[in-house]
C-alpha cells in the first residue's frame, strides 16, 4: 500500500465562502449578470464544506475519498484564482471611480483592463468576454460533478455526527515564542559525560594528531543535535577552548562554502573568499596554535577527498582541538573519525514518559496522575525511544484536557499505517493530523524550505499572508498578528525549532518534520532540486522554491512552462551572502515570469537584475514582490497597477533612484522596505493614501513630498527614517505628521542635510523637531545634522521609558545637551560632532536630581566623538 498525502481543505473553504460573499464582488456581479452564479457556488460550497471533516478523517484509509479530495483541492485553487480575478476587477473599478480624470481617458482605461477582460469596454463597466464566462461555467460544472461523486462516498455532514464534532471540546492553549531549550535533554547525561571524557578536557592530546574527530551516530529524531548542543554550551567546554564554531552541514558539503562559514564564525569577518586557496590560508592563520571546537551537524558526505580538503587547515590548531560530527550514516563516520564512533541509542521508556509528560502537562512523569498514566505510558511506547516523537506528541496532548481524549489519540488509525519506504513517524503524522485546519496549510507550505534551511519568522509570515492563508480573527485585526500567533503555536507544538546559530527571529525544522511537511503538501508544493517531474507533469503544482545558482537560465525553469497556475516563485540562498554573484537570464525575467499570471509570490532577491519588464503588470494576483539586493535603478511604472500588492521589498537596492509615480495606487500595500537605497533621493507624493502601510523604512522629503504625508499612516511599525527635514518650511506640516500617535514605531531616525548653508533656518528646525515628538514606545532614536541651537524639550522626558539607544551626530549649532539621565532604560548614548557644546556638566544627568549618581541607571556605553570645542566633563 502506498501512503498518500493527506489533504485538508476546511480552512480553504472558509476563505472561499468569505470571498464569494464579499461586498465588492457583489457590486461587480450585479451589473455583469453573474450574481446568480455566485449564489449557486455558495450553496454548493456549503454542501461540500459540511462533509469535509469526515472526508479528511476517512482519507487515511479510503483511497477513493483521498482522490475525491485531490480533485476538490484543484477545484478550490482554480475557484480561488477566478474569485481573485473578479475581485481585482472590482478594485480597479473602485480606483477609477475615485480618479475620474483617469477614468475619462480611454487610453488609460484600456491600459488598466486585466487580460481576462475583453477589448469591448466602456468607462462605466467592462463587459466580460467568452473566456471569463467559460471559466465560470467550468467551475460550476466541476462543482456539480464533485457533489454527485460525494453521494457515493458515504460521508457524514457535521450536523449528522461528523468527526469534527468529536473535537469541539478541545481548548486552544495560550501560545508563546519562548521554549524550554533543555526540556528534551532526558536520559542523555551519561552520553554527555562519555563524550566529554573522549574530549580530554584540560589535558594535552596523547596522539600524534593535532585534532580529534568524534562522530555521534544515530537515527533521525534520536537526539544527536540536542546532545551536541549540550556539549557545545557546557561551561567546562567553553572554558577549555579558544575558538568555537557550529556548522549545520546537511546535503551540501561544499569545501569552499564551509571554509567560509567556519572562518566567519570564529573571526566575525564576513568578507568573501575569492577561492579555496585564500580561504584555507586565512582559516589556518586564525586557528594556528589555538585550541578549537568545531561541531559539524548532520553530515551526509561519504567522499573522503572532500573531508580531507576541508580538514587541512585544522592541522594548525593546538593539541586537544576537537571536531564533533553528528550523522545518521556509519559510512560518513568511518571516513572522518579519529576515535571510535559514539552510537546514540533509543531512550528507555521511562525517559520518553518524562519527555511526553513534560511537554503535555508540565509534569515530571505520570506517577501522580493515575487517570492519564495508562494512556500516557502506552503512547510513550509508540514513540519507539525517540525524543523528537515524544516532544511532538506532547505538544499535541497539551490540547487534550481529559483522559478519554488521550485514549482517542492512542486508538488512532494512523498507528496502523504501513511505514515501509516512508521515514515519517506515525507520531509526527498524528501530531499534524490533530492541528487545527488553518495551521495545517501553514505548516505544509514550509515544505518549500530545504532541510536545515534557516528561515526568518517575519519573512515567513509575509509569505503566508501573500498566499492568502491568514485572515483577521476575533483577537487580532491585523493579518501579521494572526500570522505571528500561528507561528508561535506551531513552535509550541515543536514543528519549528529555534536556530542555534542565527538571530532571535530565525528558525529551522528537524529533518523528520521537514519530511512530514513534504509528505502532507503532496503535489501542491515542490522544489526544483528534487526533479519531481511527476509532480510537475500533471500541472497541479502551485508553489515552488529552488536553491539560487550562480547562473540560472531558462532551461532550469523549463518545468514552469507546464505549471501555468504557479503561485510561488521563491529562490532561496544556500548561505547568507551580500555579493551579486547570481545571474537570472533575461529570458526568464522578460519571457517566463510575465506568463505566470497567477503568481502571488515573486522573489528575485539577490540576482544581478538591472530592470523588471513592463509586462509585470500581467501579474494581477501578485501580493509579494521581493527585489532586494538587485541592481535595479527604477521600477517600471506598471508596478503601480499591481493593486493587490501587500509587500514590496527593495532593501539594499543600492542603485535604485526612483519609485513609480503612481505608487499611491497600491492601496493594499502593507510593507514597503527601501532601507539601504542610498541613491533614492526623492519619493512620489500620495503616500498618505496608502493607509495600510505598516513598514515604511524611510521617507525622502522634497520635490512635492511633505512630511505631513505621514498623517494617514497610523499603522506604521518598526523603524522609520525621515530624510531631508531641511525641506520642511512650515512647522505645521510636522505637527500634522502626528508621530506621537504612531504607537508601533520603535526606531526613528531624523535626518537634515549635511550642508549647513544660509538656506537653513534654526528657528524653524527647532520648531519642527519639537513637533515631531514620537510615541513613548520608542526604543531607538538617531538625530543627524540638526541645525537648531537646542534639542527638543521631549528629548530626555522620563515618559520615554523604553528608549534604549540615542545617537546625536553633527548637530553642530547646539550649545547644550538635554537632560538624558532620567531615561530609565537608556543603555547606549553616542554624541558626535556637537561642536557648540563647550562643557558637559550635571545638566546631562538632570540638575534637579538630588543624587546625580542615580542618573543613567541602565547606561552601558557612553561615547563622545569629534567634539572639537569640547573642553571638560563636569559631573
From TrEMBL:
Gene Ontology BP term (one): defense response to virus
Gene Ontology terms, MF aspect: ADP binding; ATP binding
Record-given protein name: Disease resistance RPP13-like protein 1
Residues in Disease resistance N-terminal domain copies: 15-102
Family per similarity comment: Belongs to the disease resistance NB-LRR family.
Species annotation: Escallonia rubra
KW NADP (keyword) present: no
UniProt region (Disordered), positions on chain: 157-181
Pfam families: LRR_R13L1-DRL21 (PF25019), NB-ARC (PF00931), Rx_N (PF18052), WHD_DRP (PF23559)
Keyword annotations of the record: ATP-binding, Leucine-rich repeat, Nucleotide-binding, Plant defense, Repeat, Signal
Key word Heme present: no
Domain NB-ARC span(s) in chain numbering: 209-357
Amino acid at each position: 500500500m502506498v501512503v498518500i498525502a493527506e489533504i485538508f481543505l476546511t480552512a480553504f473553504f472558509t476563505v472561499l465562502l468569505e470571498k464569494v460573499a464579499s461586498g465588492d464582488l457583489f457590486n461587480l456581479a450585479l451589473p455583469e449578470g453573474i450574481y446568480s452564479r455566485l449564489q449557486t457556488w455558495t450553496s454548493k460550497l456549503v454542501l461540500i464544506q459540511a462533509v469535509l471533516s469526515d472526508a479528511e478523517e476517512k482519507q487515511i484509509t479510503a483511497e477513493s475519498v483521498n482522490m475525491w479530495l485531490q480533485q476538490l483541492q484543484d477545484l478550490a485553487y482554480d475557484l480561488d484564482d477566478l474569485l481573485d480575478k473578479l475581485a481585482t476587477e472590482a478594485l480597479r473599478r473602485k480606483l477609477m471611480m475615485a480618479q475620474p480624470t483617469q477614468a475619462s481617458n480611454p487610453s488609460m482605461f484600456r491600459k488598466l483592463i486585466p487580460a481576462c477582460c475583453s477589448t469591448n469596454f466602456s468607462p462605466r463597466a467592462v463587459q466580460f468576454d467568452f473566456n471569463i464566462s467559460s471559466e465560470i461555467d467550468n467551475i460550476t460544472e466541476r462543482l456539480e460533478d464533485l457533489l454527485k461523486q460525494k453521494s457515493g462516498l458515504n460521508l457524514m455532514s457535521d450536523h449528522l455526527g461528523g468527526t469534527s464534532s468529536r473535537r469541539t471540546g478541545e481548548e486552544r492553549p495560550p501560545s508563546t515564542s519562548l521554549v524550554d531549550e533543555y526540556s528534551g535533554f532526558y536520559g542523555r547525561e551519561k552520553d554527555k559525560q562519555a563524550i566529554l571524557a573522549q574530549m580530554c578536557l584540560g589535558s594535552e592530546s596523547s596522539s600524534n594528531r593535532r585534532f580529534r574527530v568524534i562522530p555521534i551516530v544515530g537515527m533521525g529524531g534520536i537526539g544527536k543535535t540536542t546532545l551536541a548542543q549540550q556539549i557545545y554550551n557546557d561551561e567546562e567546554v567553553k572554558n577549555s577552548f579558544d575558538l568555537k564554531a557550529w556548522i549545520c552541514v546537511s546535503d551540501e558539503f561544499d569545501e569552499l562554502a564551509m571554509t567560509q562559514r567556519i572562518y566567519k564564525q570564529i573571526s566575525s569577518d564576513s568578507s568573501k573568499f575569492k577561492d579555496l586557496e585564500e580561504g584555507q590560508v586565512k582559516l589556518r592563520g586564525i586557528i594556528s596554535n589555538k585550541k578549537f571546537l568545531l561541531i559539524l551537524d548532520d553530515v551526509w558526505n561519504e567522499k573522503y577527498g572532500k573531508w580531507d580538503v576541508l580538514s587541512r587547515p585544522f592541522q594548525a590548531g593546538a593539541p586537544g582541538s576537537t571536531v564533533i560530527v553528528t550523522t545518521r550514516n556509519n559510512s560518513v563516520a568511518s571516513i572522518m573519525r579519529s576515535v571510535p564512533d559514539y552510537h546514540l541509542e533509543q531512550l528507555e521508556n521511562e525517559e520518553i514518559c518524562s519527555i511526553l509528560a513534560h511537554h503535555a502537562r508540565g509534569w515530571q512523569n505520570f506517577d501522580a496522575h493515575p487517570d492519564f498514566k495508562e494512556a500516557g505510558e502506552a503512547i510513550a511506547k509508540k514513540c519507539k525511544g525517540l525524543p523528537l516523537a515524544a516532544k511532538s506528541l506532547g505538544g499535541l496532548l497539551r490540547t487534550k484536557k481529559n483522559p478519554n481524549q488521550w485514549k482517542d489519540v492512542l486508538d488512532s488509525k494512523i498507528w496502523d499505517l504501513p511505514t515501509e519506504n516512508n521515514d515519517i513517524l506515525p507520531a509526527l503524522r498524528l501530531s499534524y493530523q490533530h492541528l487545527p485546519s488553518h495551521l495545517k496549510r501553514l505548516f505544509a507550505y514550509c515544505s518549500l524550505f530545504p532541510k536545515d534551511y534557516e528561515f526568518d519568522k517575519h519573512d515567513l509570515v509575509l509569505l503566508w499572508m501573500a498566499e492568502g492563508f491568514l485572515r483577521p480573527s476575533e483577537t487580532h485585526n491585523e493579518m501579521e498578528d494572526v500570522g505571528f500567533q500561528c507561528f508561535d503555536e506551531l513552535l509550541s507544538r515543536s514543528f519549528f525549532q529555534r536556530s542555534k546559530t542565527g538571530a532571535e527571529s530565525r528558525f529551522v525544522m528537524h529533518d523528520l518534520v521537514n519530511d512530514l511537511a513534504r509528505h502532507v503538501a503532496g503535489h501542491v508544493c515542490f522544489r526544483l532540486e528534487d526533479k519531481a517531474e511527476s509532480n510537475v507533469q500533471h500541472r497541479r503544482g502551485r508553489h515552488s522554491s529552488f536553491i539560487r545558482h550562480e547562473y540560472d537560465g531558462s532551461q532550469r525553469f523549463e518545468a514552469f512552462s507546464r505549471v501555468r497556475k504557479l503561485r510561488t516563485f521563491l529562490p532561496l540562498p544556500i548561505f547568507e551572502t551580500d555579493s551579486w554573484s547570481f545571474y537570472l537570464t533575461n529570458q526568464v525575467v522578460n519571457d517566463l515570469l510575465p506568463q505566470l499570471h497567477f503568481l502571488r509570490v515573486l522573489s528575485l532577491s539577490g540576482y544581478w537584475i538591472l530592470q523588471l519588464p513592463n509586462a509585470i503588470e500581467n501579474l494581477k494576483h501578485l501580493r509579494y514582490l521581493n527585489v532586494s539586493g538587485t541592481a535595479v535603478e527604477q521600477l517600471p511604472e506598471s508596478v503601480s497597477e499591481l493593486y493587490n500588492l501587500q509587500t514590496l521589498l527593495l532593501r539594499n537596492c543600492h542603485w535604485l533612484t526612483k519609485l513609480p509615480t503612481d505608487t499611491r495606487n497600491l492601496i493594499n500595500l502593507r510593507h514597503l522596505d527601501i532601507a539601504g537605497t542610498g541613491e533614492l533621493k526623492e519619493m512620489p507624493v500620495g503616500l498618505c493614501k496608502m493607509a495600510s502601510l505598516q513598514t515604511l523604512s524611510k521617507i525622502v522629503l522634497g520635490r512635492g513630498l511633505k512630511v505631513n504625508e505621514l498623517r494617514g499612516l497610523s499603522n506604521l511599525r518598526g523603524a522609520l527614517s525621515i530624510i531631508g527635514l531641511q525641506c520642511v518650511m512650515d512647522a505645521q506640516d510636522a505637527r500634522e505628521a502626528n508621530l506621537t500617535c504612531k504607537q508601533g514605531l520603535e526606531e526613528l531616525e531624523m535626518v537634515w542635510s549635511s550642508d549647513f548653508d544660509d538656506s537653513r533656518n534654526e528657528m524653524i528646525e527647532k520648531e519642527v523637531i519639537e513637533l515631531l515628538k514620537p510615541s513613548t514606545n520608542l526604543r531607538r532614536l538617531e538625530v543627524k545634522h540638526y541645525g537648531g541651537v537646542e534639542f527638543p524639550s521631549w528629548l530626555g522626558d522620563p515618559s520615554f521609558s523604553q528608549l534604549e539607544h540615542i545617537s546625536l551626530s553633527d548637530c553642530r549649532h547646539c550649545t547644550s545637551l538635554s537632560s538624558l539621565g532620567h531615561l530609565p532604560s537608556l543603555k547606549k548614548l553616542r554624541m558626535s560632532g556637537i561642536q557648540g557644546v563647550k562643557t558637559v556638566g550635571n545638566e546631562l544627568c538632570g540638575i534637579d536630581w538630588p543624587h546625580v549618581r542615580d542618573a543613567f541607571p541602565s547606561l552601558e556605553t557612553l561615547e563622545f566623538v569629534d567634539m572639537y570645542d569640547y573642553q571638560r566633563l563636569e559631573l
